[in-house]
Each structure stands twice: as structure tokens, then as C-alpha cells.
Amino acid sequence: MHALRAALADLVLGVRCAGCEAPGRALCDTCRSEIGHRAAVRIPDPAPSALRRPTPVVPMSLTPYAGVVVPVLHAYKEEPRTALAAPLGGLLADAVEAAIGRCTGEEDPHAAGPVRLVPVPSRRSAVRARGFDAGAALARSAAADLRRRGLPARAAPVLRVGRIADQAGLTAADRARNLAGAYRLRRPLGAGLVVVTDDVLTTGASAAEAVRVLTEAGSRPVAVVTVAATRRRLGRAGDGSGSR
């Protein structure tokens, strides 16, 4: 129902930018450029142990969760304006390329071979309320964009989530307890580099649970890649987070 109302609004009012309300596109060039800063490693502090052991998992995002990216991601997930999946997927693809280059040491990320983008799973109640799976749609869009660039990428929504409380307002410790054991693997992953994807990295609890489950199944991710990362948890000096 929400998705239908959003589509009708765009039909009646015309497509408008989710960041600045300029007519013509779901995300205008100016707002896209503001979100698409140079991708950087932004590490939650404290970093969940699943992102550190047995091997480091690089947390890469395009921008701090501030400014224009906030209304854009809200519009995508909560209105919901599903047309934003394409431009946001392109931005996520930029960050995936940067993460792969950093993790593999390859100047050309296309040399890394096949890539599997595993979205952090959404609660079933959230999917029903929105009318679509925002995380899976974002991963599919990013994978399609990467394939157009010549990188053999596929979205792999292989995780499912059990009954958990809403994460909003929970502390880092509460989020970790809420998610402990919450994810399950639907099916094994094929060969390739595994990258966990999401829209925003906050405390890292959701990403860490996804990494834990995949690691136990023998598919240790090399990176967690998001469009944005919250600024309220700052990385320590010298960790390269850029989230200040």
C-alpha cells in the first residue's frame, strides 16, 4: 500500500529528487554527487568481534550518515520510493569496487573474479509494511550495475531473520544481544568473494551477525559495504575511518 501511494504521488506530482525535491529524477546529479564521496573505511567503535576475527572484514561506506543521504535513504525505505534502488545501487557498487580493491590488493577490482553480494536480511514485518525488501533490492541493483562495468557480481539474499525486536533506540550492546543467533542461512553460497551489503552501518551488530553466520558456513566475507555509516560512533585515530 505504501509503495502504491508513492507511485501515485510520483505520477500526479512528477518524479522529484528525494534529496532536494528538484523535479525530473529520483536522485538528481547534485545530490548523488554529495552522497558519492570517496569511499572510505568507517569502523564502528567498538568493532564487533565478528568483524575482526578470525580475519578482518573491511567496513566500507561512501559517506557519513548525515546531510542529504538521510532523507534519501528514508524516502527509499519508508515512503517507499523504489525508483531510488537504481541510483543507490550504483552508489553502493562504487563502494563495493573500492572495498574489493582494498581487500585483494588489486588495482583493477575486476581481476578479483566473481562477487556475491549478501544483503543483511530485513525483518518480515518491515518487508510487509514497505511492500518490498529494501536491502535485497539494493543488492540486486548494485550487482546489476557491477555487471555493466564488467565485474561478474550476483546478489545472493541467502540469509533470513527470525523474530527480533525493532533495533531503533537500542544501544550497541542491546543490538548485539537482540541479534545473537537471529540469522539463518537459506542455502550455501557459490564460489566467489563474499561481500555483505546494507544501506547504513550503525553499531555493526547486524553486519556482524551476517558475517558470523556466513563464516560458520565456510563463506567468510571480505567486506561489509554500505551507502552510509553513522557518525555517532567514531573510529579511533589512525584506523582510516574518516568518520569524524
From TrEMBL:
Its family remark reads:
Belongs to the ComF/GntX family.
Name of the protein this chain belongs to: ComF family protein
Gene3D superfamilies in the record, alphabetically? 3.40.50.2020
